[in-house]
């Protein structure tokens, strides 16, 4: 059961219809409704985890394995979408100061064109 006010939980539960680019037992992938690149996809774990902070909490069990699976799924989707071997950007916004607007962990896949800006 997912929280009632979480938009991604509603998408996962089918309350809000979506075209799923990918789905398996632990993740879904949908197109971002406000794309920032030619290809802008969201990989969303089905587990109700609010943010990256919950993956590595100060106390309690970390969920590092889930993060590995998230990136594994992202790479698989990027290949299926023709973004590899050319390349893509993956982004996880964490917290409101980090630009997170939906508090359900998700990874952005951006690509399909040369991306401006560089982070290293």
Describe it for me?
With 120 residues, the chain is α+β, with helices and mostly antiparallel strands. It has a domain at 1-62 and 85-99 and 107-112: 2-Layer Sandwich (HIT family, subunit A), CATH 3.30.428. Helices cover 23% and strands 21% of the residues. The chain has a five-stranded antiparallel sheet with strand order 1-2-3-5-4, with helices on one face. β2 (27-31) and β3 form a beta hairpin. The termini are far apart.
Largest β-sheet summary: 5 strands, antiparallel
N-to-C SSE string, H for helix and E for strand: HEEEHHEE
* Quaternary organisation of the protein chains: single chain
- CATH class identity of the domain at 1-62 and 85-99 and 107-112: Alpha Beta
Q: What is the H level of CATH, i.e. the homologous superfamily of the domain at 1-62 and 85-99 and 107-112?
A: HIT-like
**CATH architecture assignment of the domain at 1-62 and 85-99 and 107-112:** 2-Layer Sandwich
Query: What Rg do the Cα atoms give?
Result: 14 Å
Global outline:
globular
Query: What is the CATH third-level topology name of the domain at 1-62 and 85-99 and 107-112?
Result: HIT family, subunit A
**What is the structural class?**
alpha+beta
Low-confidence region ranges: none
State which percent range the strand residues make up: 15-25%
**Whole-number average pLDDT?**
93
Strand order of the largest sheet: 1-2-3-5-4
> Count the strands?
5
């Amino acid at each position: 059961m997912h929280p009632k006010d979480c938009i991604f939980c509603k998408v996962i539960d089918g309350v809000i219809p979506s075209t799923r680019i990918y789905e398996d037992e632990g993740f879904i992938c949908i197109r971002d409704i406000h794309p920032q690149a030619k290809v802008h996809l969201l990989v969303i774990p089905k587990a109700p985890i609010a943010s990256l902070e919950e993956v590595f909490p100060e106390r309690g069990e970390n969920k590092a394995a889930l993060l590995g699976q998230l990136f594994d799924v992202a790479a698989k989707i990027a290949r299926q979408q023709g973004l590899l071997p050319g390349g893509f950007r993956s982004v996880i916004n964490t917290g409101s100061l980090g630009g997170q607007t939906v508090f359900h962990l998700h990874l952005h896949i951006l690509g399909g064109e040369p991306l401006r800006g560089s982070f290293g």
